[in-house]
Each structure stands twice: as structure tokens, then as C-alpha cells.
Records
---
Amino acid sequence: MEFNNNKPIYLQIADYVFDKILSGEWTAGERIPSVRELGANLQVNPNTVVRTFDFLQGESIIFNKRGIGYFVAEEALQRIVKLNRAKFFSSQLPSMFKTMNALGISCTEILTQYEDFIKQ
């Protein structure tokens, strides 16, 4: 995994976990890799993975069974969608609106493009 400097690594790892759950690779109730396993796979310090797992537990995406490991929470998929939607509306959409305005792109044009995209 390649990391960028614009976002903390632990949040980039959280996005990686989000992607695994959103894609269905990791499902509700399933055990996920341990701190050490994920750290080794992503070539990061295990302490960074611990920080990621603390964040994900705080968001109720994963939970810990003492002595067994970490598991995907039952509502993880819905929570991830909710978090990503909020991030999209607060961060990405305003930037997109600014670009649309600068380029003179109307909402009608965007809707047409979106409908074409959905058909594909």
C-alpha cells in the first residue's frame, strides 16, 4: 500500500479496512487480520495499526473479542456508508461545486452524465 502525505497513515489504513468491508471481502462477524498481520501486510508499525483499530472501534466498525482477535461489526457496512456520505457532502461536493461553477457546468449536465454512468 502506498501512503500519501496529505492524510495520517492510520486514517489511510482505516480507508483500506473500509474498502475491504465495502467490497464484501470482509463481512459482518468475520475475523480480520491481527494488528501484527495487518502491520506486516501493509509494511507499517504495529502501533499505527493499533491506532487505526482504536479509531475503528470508536466508530463501531470493528470490535475486539479478548484473546481471539478483531471482528467486523454487524452494522459496519451501514456505518461506513454513513461516514463516507458525510465526508463526501462536507469535503468533496463543495470542491466539485466550485469546479462546476468555474467551468460553467450545470446540474443538468451532471445529471445527464450521471445517468449515462449508471446505465453502464
Note: The chain has a mean pLDDT of 95.
---
Amino acid sequence: MTDFNELFCDNILNISTVGRDDTHVSDGVFAYEPTSYLVLDRMHEKGMFSDIDLLVDYGCGKGRVPFYIAYYCERAAIGVESEDDFYKAAEKNRENFKLSGLVEFVHLKAEDYVVPDRADVFFFFHPFSEAALEKVLGNIEESYERCRRRIRLIMYYMTAEYIKLMKNHPEYELISKTDCRDLFKNRDGRDFVFWYEKIS
């Protein structure tokens, strides 16, 4: 069933990101499904995107979150995507996006991406395995040691394994857990956004 709100919001940004894609599902790699605009709006309302210098979206797919950040927050964003066809779709969307100078896409596995020292907000929509997440957190830590700054992790649709993993990282404090279940019908109850900040 087509979600006309999703299509409408894509049209505003002049991009094409709607739809689920299970093409690349494998061990440790999950289906492509863009974060709902309703969820992004709620995160924005809750202040999760305030005072961004540079946002990094891991497993960005076709680029919805970076485009949203550029358009609605007027901030720079980088999408990291390992799958070739999704990366190409993101770049094609970038060609049509009027604020393309604020958006960049990198064709790499998340764990191989060297975190820029100005990146301060990191977004995850359950993109990969816990092992990959551990490596990504290590890369963020290396960047933090090079350049100490405020670090935020925004994690949507977390599994019990992800939540347990974050509890084993006391250097991150859970700031809020935002309930988004009211935005959807007949879902599995995991529609929460977890906002973590690194403790200096």
C-alpha cells in the first residue's frame, strides 16, 4: 500500500526514497527501509537535530536522512552506504536536490569509514550487525580522541541486542527514549528513538 505522506515529502525534496527493498538482506545486513518522515519530524521536534555541525548517517540507503537534515536544518550531512545500487540511487537523488552542496555520500562499509573530526551527530536505523556497530563506535572514539567535542548517537528501531550493546558502553549516556508507536498501526513495538550522548 502506498503511503501518500511519504510520496508527498519525497516530492518536496525532489528525491525518490520510498519503498522497502530486501535485495541485499544477508547475515548482518538488513533490508532497506527509509526512516519515516513522521519519525524524522518527531526527532526534529524533540531537538535531536539541533546545533548540528555534521551528521553521519550509517547505512543511508537512498539518502533520505541526509537530505532531510540539509533541507530542514540547513546543516551538512554525510551518508555512508555499502550497497552499490543504493549508493547510486542516493547520488542520483543528490543531482536533483537543490541543496546538494550540503550533502555527500560515501560508498564504503560503515566499519571502514574514517569519521571526520567535525562529525558530531551519528544516525543509525538498525543498519547492520552488532559486530559492525562495535567497530563503528571504535571509529567514532578514535575521532573523538583526535578532536574532543559533543557527540550524539541517535538510534531508531533498536533490537534488544543493540540496547544491550549500548549498556556495555558506559561512556554513552541515554538522554531520552522517544516513543513513536502512535505514528503507525500494526507494528512490532520497536518504534522508539534512543538518544545517547558521549560523557566527556
Note: The mean pLDDT is 92.
